[in-house]
Structure prediction request, 281 residues.
Amino acid sequence: MSAKSSERAAFLALRICGCAVAAPILLILGLLIVKGAPALSAEFLLSAPRMGLKEGGIFPAIVGTVILVALAISVALPLGVACAVYLNEYAGDSRLTRLIRLSIVNLAGVPSVVFGLFGLGLFVLFLKFGVSILSGSLTLAFLILPVVITASEEALSSVPKSFSEASLALGATKMQTILRVVLPNALPGMLTGAILGVSRAAGETAPILFTVAAFYLPRLPSSIFDQAMALPYHLYIVSTQVPGASETVKYGTALVLVSLAFGLNLVAIIARNRIRKQRKW
Prediction:
């Protein structure tokens, strides 16, 4: 077999693998759209549930999800970036560094229900934040922290060392170099970690089950110490605990959840691409 034939066969195999990965995703999205789109209306999106969650809308759950994700990423992103800067710029290769990286890898593999129990024990009971938005968002922040750290460290290590060397040669301090040279050039990669974190935080049920989620709240939360409804938990309740709930409502809720995660990701992707176009190296 010639080199060109081998190359074509390899590309064909890669296309088949890509289609095999994309096909289930497209089928799921198609199913959600076909079965959930009829439920979408102004009342469904902008009103509170009523009649034991069998009627009304999901507006409080949408607002609760957005608040939880926003607070979680606002906590996880600074912590993750700070940890990545330490590992990439200061720590070097030592036993402590290897132990920290091993802990990050292990933390990424911990089941989400364990994070929920951790949040219940630390934030709800020990720190006495109660079942609240604060407890739930902090739990989600720790859940997505390994993803943010890993993506941020990869982004920092991808910045050419010559940039830092040139900055230091011009008289800048180590901190000035990190803040004004390294971090701005690593920002697109860091936003990738934020995108992955948003996707995971928006769809998790187990962590918020123990720390924040309410079965039914017709009003919006007024402080971070209030409980809140959230789309993942609301979908679980409607699907399993509400007899006689319309299948259209279930699929409509799932479609809104997927659309919300997609929308948040899209905003981050657009911001990342704009920043990336400004950084040409």
